[in-house]
Amino acid sequence: MVTLGSLLLPVLLAAAICLVAGFVLWMVLPLHKGDFRPFADEAAVADAVRRQNLPPGQYIMPYCADPKQMKDPAMQARYAQGPVGYLVLGRPGQPAIGKNLVLTYLYHAVVSFFIAYIAAHSLESGTPYLQVFRVTGTIAFLAYAAAVIPSGIWYGRPWGPVWREVFDGLVYALLTAGVFGWLWPR
């Protein structure tokens, strides 16, 4: 039997390696450089949003509080006229890079913990590397990559950035699977 305690090292190491891989994918390689585009007149857009005095959160436009309103000709006209979009606003000020790195590491650790949980209940001690790699890699790919796709379907995110994040998920999955396969209890 494989215990979760015996998988603590792979959990923590996989989380650390995925954190470093994320840095390489987002900051070193040019893979994500075109994922966001500037506004034609950023100052005017920022002024318009600032005048709304909106707290941090996510917003949709046009806003439809009740699905029944979708049949209203006035609501249909608002959609037809546009713009149709989603906006996420953070707190003013520089991003808290240190805090975000810690939270990202914790995210990877939680994902790796659940991978360990499923693998510990699915695989025996001494399972060959490739079988551990296959099982943990599949779980990791689903955890890291599958959740990104609905943002392209429902929120209109461009498919290029969505597929690049799916690729990131594949990288995280392969690295996680490699760590679990390497450190699986014998």
List the topology elements.
Blueprint: H1 8-28, H2 42-52, E1 57-61, H3 73-81, E2 85-89, H4 97-122, H5 129-145, H6 149-154, H7 159-183
Antiparallel strand pairs: 1-2
Q: What order do the helices and strands follow?
A: HHEHEHHHH
Q: Which spans have pLDDT < 50 for at least 5 consecutive residues?
A: none
Major sheet strand order: 1-2
Radius of gyration (CA) equals: 21 Å
Helicity range = 55-70%
- The total count of helices amounts to 7
Structural class of the helices, strands and pairings?
mainly alpha
**Separation, N- and C-terminal Cα atoms:** 11 Å
Average pLDDT score: 96
| Largest sheet composition | 2 strands, antiparallel
Query: What's the count of strands?
Result: 2
Strand content: 5-15%
The best one-word shape is elongated
Description:
There is one protein chain. This protein is mainly α and 186 residues long. It has a domain at 5-35 and 93-183. 62% of the residues lie in helices and 5% in strands. It has a two-stranded antiparallel sheet. α1 packs across α4 (97-122) and α1 packs antiparallel against α7. The longest helix is centred in the middle third of the chain and has 26 residues, at 97-122. The radius of gyration is 21 Å and the shape is elongated. It starts with 7 loop residues before the first helix and ends with a helix. The model has no long low-confidence stretch (mean pLDDT 96).
What's the short version?
This protein is mainly alpha-helical and 186 residues long. It is 62% helix and 5% strand. It has helices spanning 8-28, 42-52, 73-81, 97-122, 129-145, 149-154, 159-183, and strands at residues 57-61, 85-89.
